[in-house]
Amino acid sequence: MITKHLWSLHHISKTVISPKTILFLRLLGGQYSKICSNRLVCAVTAVYCIVFSCYAPVQMLMLLARSLTPTSVQSTAAVTIFLSSALTSFWYPEYFQIFQNDMAAIDIVLRGKSELDIPLTRVLLIAVVVSHVSTIVPFAINGVLEGRAEFQISKFLFVAYFVLQNGITYLMAVMVFEILWYRVRKFREHLENYLPRVCRAQDVQAATEDICKCLLLYQNILEAFKKTNVPIKIAILTATAASFFKVIAGVFELITSSSTHIKVLRIHEAVLDSVLPLTPAVLAALIQGELNRIKLFIGNLILNAKDESVHDALCDCQLYLEHRPFRYSVWRLFTVDLSLVISVINLYVTSLIAMIQFGHFYN
pTM for the full model? Predict the structure, then answer.
C-alpha cells in the first residue's frame, strides 16, 4: 500500500515538475523563451520579459538601498546572475528546445520512444522551494505580527521570487547536463546489448556498417550538446563566480549575527549556493565515467573480434572516442569536472580561514 502511494506521488511529481515547468517558471521571471510559432504570442511574451527584466533589477537595487535585503554582496550577486541569464535568454531564445528535440530523436533510436525525465533536477527544485519556504515564511510571519514599519509583504514576496529565479538559473545548467548524462548512459547500455550481436553476425559488411552507425549516434549526442555551449557556459561562469561571493557573505553574516533565524537562513542559502553551481561538474564526471566504460567495453570486443573488418571498425570506434573525449571547459578559464569541485572547496576553506583570522585580528 505504501509502495503504491509512493509510486503515485512519484508519477504526480514527474508530471507536474518537468522541463516545461522549469521553462515556464523561467519565463515568468523575465527570461525569454520561444514558446510557440505564433508571432503575436511571442511578441507579447518578449515585451513582458523585457519589462520584467528591466523592472526586477531596479526594484532589487532600490530595496538594497533601503536595507531590506540581507547583505549588499548577496543582492548584487543575485542581480548579476539574473541579468546575465535574462540577456542570454534573449540572445539564444530556442537553445533548450533545439537541444530537447535532438535528444528526443536520439531517444527514439536508443529506446524506441522519447521520454525526457529529469529526476535529479526535480529533486533539486523541490529542495530549493522547500528551503526557501521553510526559512522565509517564518520571517514573514514575524514581520507581520511584530508590525514592522519597513516590512511590506508584497516587496518581501518579490525578493523571495527573485531569489527563486537564481535557483532556476542554476537548475537550467543542471538539467542540460542531466539530460546528456542520461543519454550517454543509455548509449552505453545500447552498445553493451547491440555490439556483441553485431560482432557475431555472419554478414561482415553489415556488421561494419552497424558499428559505424553507433559511432554516428555518439557524434549526434555531442553535436546536440554543442548547441547549448554559449548559454550554458555563461550560466556556469556567472553562477560559479557569483555564488562564491554569496556564500562568503552568508558565512560572514552567519558568524557575526546573533539572530538564530538569520543563522538558519544563511546555512540554507550557503548550502544551496555551494551545491547547485557545482552539480554540473559532478554530472560531467559521471559522463566521463560512462565514456570510460564504453572504451573499456569496446577494448574487450577488439580482443575477441575474429573478423579483420570488424576488428578494424572497432579500432576506429575506439580511436574516435579517444580523440573526442568529453572535456567541457568554460572558455579555457576552468574545466567543468571534479577538479572544479575540489578547487572551489579549497577556495571556500581558504577564504573562511582568512575571514576568521581577520575577525580575530580586528576583534
Answer: 0.85
Q: Is residue 83 part of a domain?
A: no
Q: What is the pLDDT of residues 194-238, one digit of tens each?
A: 878 777 766 777 777 777 888 888 888 888 888 888 888 888 888
> CA–CA separation, 310 vs 199, rounded Å?
7
Q: Which residues pair with 335 in a beta bridge?
A: 329
Does some domain include residue 233?
Answer: yes
**Residue numbers of the domain that contains 205:** 2-17+95-361
What cell was used for 360?
580575530
What would the DSSP string read from start to end of 19-79? HHHHHHHHHHTT------S-HHHHHHHHHHHHHHHHHHHHHHHHHHHTT-SS-HHHHHHHH
The radius of gyration computed from the CA coordinates of the chain, to the nearest angstrom, equals: 24
For the chain, the domain total comes to 1
- Pick the closest to residue 196 from 51, 343, 115, 314 (CA basis): 314
Tell me how far apart the alpha carbons of residues 347 and 358 are, in angstroms, rounded to a whole number. 16
Let me know if residue 165 belongs to a domain. Answer: yes
